[in-house]
Structures are given as structure tokens and as C-alpha cells.
Amino acid sequence: MRTNLQVPFAEKDEAKQLGARWDPARRLWYVQNVQDLSAFARWLPDQATTQEAATIKPTAKARQAESMVKTGSRFFQLDCDCLPWAGCPKCKPKVEAKGWSVPA
After folding, report:
1. Which of 88, 80, 87 is CA-nearest to residue 103?
2. Mean pLDDT of 7-15
3. Which of 86, 104, 84 is nearest to 94 (CA)?
4. Model-level pTM?
5. What does the longest C-alpha to C-alpha distance in the chain come to?
6. Which residue, 37, 31, 9, 11, is CA-closest to 19?
7. Cα 35 to chain centroid, rounded
8. Half-sphere exposure (CA, 13 Å, Cβ side) for 18?
9. What CA–CA distance (Å, rounded) separates 50 from 104?
């Protein structure tokens, strides 16, 4: 479950170090699937703010930014969830055919 955080700019590095991520479309910090939120307690919004934020709809520009997938010119899709640099036997030929080297 996603939990939005209210992180002041001065504390952004600390939040990032604890595992928080920045959402550029919504311009806020959040954590995803964290069971124990005690490390983020000081940045958790109060209930009134949470309910108010839930009623605000994102702008058209924000919705468009969320739906865009940004990839580079050398991007290609792999058939499995492995990491391309891990040397998966299934993906290795495809990775090498695209000009990337796979560690032995």
C-alpha cells in the first residue's frame, strides 16, 4: 500500500535514505508496501490532510505525465523479470544481440 509523506525539502535526503521515493507527477514523497511506518512517523500527514488530499483530483498534465512511459533509444523489453546484468540464460542472447555485454 502506498503511503504519502509530508517531507520538508531540508529533510529529503534523510527520507530517501530510509527508503522514501519521490513522485514527480504529484510532487510528494511516499513509501510503498512498508509494514512499519515508525521511521516515517514525523512525516505522516494527519487525518484531515489525508482526507482533503483524497478529494483533490490530479490535473490533466499530471495524469498525462503518469501515463507516459519514458525510455531511451536503446531500451528493449525482456521476457522475464530478471536483471539484464545478472546473466539470465533465457535473456542473455537477447541482451547480447542488442549490443549489451552480459557478465560471465
Report:
1. 87
2. 92
3. 84
4. 0.46
5. 55
6. 31
7. 17
8. 21
9. 50
